[in-house]
């Protein structure tokens, strides 16, 4: 068995080599399994790293990246399905539900951005209870405080001078 002093925490003979390990990465309920990983792991501090002499780190990293992309696309497709079910255009969905830039919804649906958790939750609620869309429209009136304040320039003095 290959053993070294841990150069992370300094514990003697604590860093052990492992190989043939399988790990399952999960992101928001989706999973990817990566097999035949090897690396070093400290039995004292619990820290470790993949074997720098093979492709473990690359394969683990790629599986994670690919999984994040798959999750974004899956949630994006769900956002699109629910929006269409509610008969909303992307623009209407932004104005009513998400806020953000005018193309925010388009980016969520294409999987370029992961929709924020409150928005995903709101869309799933509307998917289950579509009649609540009317309530949402009523409640949205005045819910956004941005742009609430307005002011009027009082130019009485200017008017007096002019007359
Ligand atoms: Zn250690």
TrEMBL record:
**Sequence ranges assigned to domain HTH cro/C1-type in this UniProt record:** 78-133
What one GO molecular function would you report for this record? DNA binding
Q: What is this protein called?
A: Type II toxin-antitoxin system MqsA family antitoxin
Q: Which InterPro entries match?
A: Cro/C1-type_HTH, Lambda_DNA-bd_dom_sf, MqsA, MqsA/HigA-2, Znf_MqsA-type
Q: Which residues cross the membrane?
A: none
Which NCBIfam families does this UniProt record tie to the protein?
Answer: CxxCG_CxxCG_HTH, YgiT_finger
Q: Name one Pfam family in it.
A: MqsA_antitoxin
């Amino acid at each position: 068995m290959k053993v070294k002093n841990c150069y992370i925490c300094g514990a003697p003979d604590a860093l052990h080599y492992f190989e043939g390990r399988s790990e399952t990465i999960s992101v928001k309920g989706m999973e990817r399994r990566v097999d035949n990983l090897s690396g070093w792991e400290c039995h004292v501090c619990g820290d470790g790293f993949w074997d720098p002499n093979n492709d473990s780190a690359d394969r683990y990293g790629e599986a994670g990246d690919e999984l994040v992309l798959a999750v974004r696309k899956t949630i994006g497709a769900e956002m699109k399905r629910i929006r269409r079910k509610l008969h909303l255009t992307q623009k209407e969905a932004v104005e009513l539900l998400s806020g953000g830039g005018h193309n925010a919804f388009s980016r969520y649906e294409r999987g370029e951005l992961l929709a924020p958790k409150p928005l995903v939750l709101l869309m799933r609620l509307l998917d289950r209870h579509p009649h609540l869309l009317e309530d949402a429209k009523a409640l949205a009136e005045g819910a956004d405080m941005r742009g609430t304040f307005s002011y009027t320039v009082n130019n009485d003095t200017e008017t007096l001078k002019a007359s």
